[in-house]
Please model this.
Amino acid sequence: MLNTFQQAPHAALPKATADEAARQEFAKSFKGFIQSTLLPGLTPVYQGRAARSFEKQHGRPPVDRRDIRAAMVPDPYFQHYAAANRIAQELLWESVIGSVDRQLPELLESAKALSASASAALEIPEGFEPPRYVTALDIHCMPGGYCTQVCADDIAVGALYDRGVYLYAMGYTGPDNDDMGRSVVNYVKRNMPDFKPRRILDMGCTVGHSTLPYKELFPDAEVWGIDVGAPVVRYAHARAAAMGQDVNFAQMNAENTTFPDGHFDLVVSHILLHETSGKAMPRIFEEAYRVLAPGGLMIHADLPPFDLMDPFTQFILDNETWYNNEPFWGAMRDLDQVALAERAGFARADVRFDTAPMAVMEFAAAADGYSQEASEHVAEREFTAGEFAPGGGWEVLIARKPAKTAMAA
Model:
């Protein structure tokens, strides 16, 4: 699909000058060029020379992503691809950060005014300590990460993320930068039409881009987005107000929230798990179970576990671990998430993986004249390595808390 989406403006989003917009569009297009032109060349390089060289050296063919990586890293073509990918990632943030810095005073005042106009809560506790797995490095090379604050009531990294992640996704998050949340919402609406949650929690919400579709689908629900970064939470609150949605936001750790037991009917996350750690991820599952009401749903949206992919596709995706400051990216996909959910309290029979078709792909398919049935199943084709989402859909881990807990029974 030729992507023609442009990010929709809103009152909290930085406004780019013509030169800034041109640099940002170049960064987005450069990433598209790498994905469409350089990345496909890795397959013949691997099959034609890297795998043969590995077998000659080791007396056996490569058997897993680690072997493939060992075979590919010395190859000049792969080095060129990896360098271009890293440069493109750094370039997209640089293309936005100047725009944010230039108008930061105005953005701060606008965010304060927008937040003041909202009836929903914004909670930033004193003395909150973000976990080290978030603060130890700039995740996905974003300068400052999620938590850096350089002034009072800072929202700069939130503004940077809102625009930068749109460029990173090459427009495939849709005009409102909300494709993951909207895709899961569409999945729930289609597959669980009678599900009407009263309270919804989005764990690791960053700027709330995936949170707002839940308020749209369930306007009477109490919706909360939480994140460990104060600047992104402040920006999320202002952004929601700018987009006409009253959603509550709080600086809070998904491993240990302050919500009461059984408070939510739906707990979701969107590409959160791979930015945590081996110790944190089981705690997040346990916390989701604790705050869910009996019969409630936990849905985590991300890319598929590695056991659902061939070794070469695993190798391609695992480059995020090595070159994009995502240290838990590969390790998370090796974990048995169903077993983690079971240990948290969910019954194994009530835990499953499914695919939520990308909302933007469904929209494009419908616009191109495909039937509704065809539009709903755009995610059934196989994942092609390097695509923004697996085959046009997000992998979702779905777990339902028993309607009656063992204690209640």
Remarks:
- Strands lie at 122-123, 199-203, 222-227, 248-251, 264-270, 292-302, 351-357, 393-400.
- The first strand starts at residue 122 and ends at 123.
